[in-house]
Write a structure and sequence with these properties.
Number of helices: 14
Strand content: 5-15%
Radius of gyration: 21 Å
Structural class: alpha/beta
Shape: globular
Distance between the termini: 43 Å
Number of strands: 6
Largest sheet: 6 strands, parallel
Helix content: 40-55%
Order of helices and strands: HHHHHHHEHEHHEHHEHEHE
Amino acid sequence: MKKLLLLFILVSDFIFSQGPSSIATANRDLWKLPMKSSKDFDVASKMEMLVFLETFAEINASNETELFKTLAVKDGTSEGVKIWKKQTQDHLVQNFKSLDANALSEVVSVKTNPTYQELVLVTKKLSGGLPENLKNWYQNSKSFYKTYILECLRLAAKSNKRTSEINTLDPSEKNGFELNDKNYLLTFDDGPTPKNGHTDQLIHVLKEQNLTGIFFLSGDKLQQRIAANGKNSVSSMYGENWIGSHSMVHKSHQYLPDWKLQIDESNGMIKDVFDFNHKTFYFRPPYGQRSKEMIQYLLKNKQPVLLWNIDSQDWSEKISSQEVSSRVITLMLLWRKGIILFHDVHPKAEIAVPAINEYFKDCPVKWLTPEEIK
């Protein structure tokens, strides 16, 4: 029985680690309007939300059987899908309330404080009401959201059996939607890499950009780095960035028999190296998969779960560094707040983070420091 359970975990980890069959990629060069002010941000945000809503309504028109066939999900359930759809509608309606009044009439007019149904009606004007210089952007944006929404629905459909970041399990969890408007947090998973590798390079890039974030360390990688370079060297390498735990091994903890041991071993090692005085010690479950029992176990140790709502997909060979930055920028405009997921064991964040920071340099985007997460 134990062998069968282990085989199930290994196979499940392999399948989930492959991610979606298609990854949504955007081209920000096709957005031909300026990005120099709060109003410019809001105009771009409004238009991204409208195209999302248009595509969202089209996908909603298909019945559940057709949807699950499109998602290629055989063991999914509709409950997680319904939760995600309702939350998504609520988030977007709230986002429209955050728009600058001067941005509402630009490109496509939207009334103040619109309802969801009113917004869907506005999307009927999109295909024929855009200026010539935005038509290529519109086609690219439509394609992006067709794929992105299916990414999200795939996670939502499986969330009852294999939990993920798409829906929270407990009010204590943070996923980015609880942040203030235009506030964002950078996070990085799976490191550290060997000395002078991608982790060290990324830390240097963040310092140059005057940015900080949270690095969620994998215990086995940390163990290797300590063995190679010593505890003192590792304890000082992250500078002003915060440290979180990604557990000891990168396997789904939802079905891992010894998940408590994996968490405790990783926590003990991390706390032996880093100073957590007055700092929250966050936990990020591998693949975002966890159970209510696990959340309560973590909370007893004052270790809240920190998830994400903007996935860069930077780990995938299917997406380039430029596409990573364009994808993250687009999702920042769509959701207007969030916790962004990168991986410091891959090189793309080193290129994408400065590009994203440059894109929004003249806009009132706030990059949160870890201590600002409440």
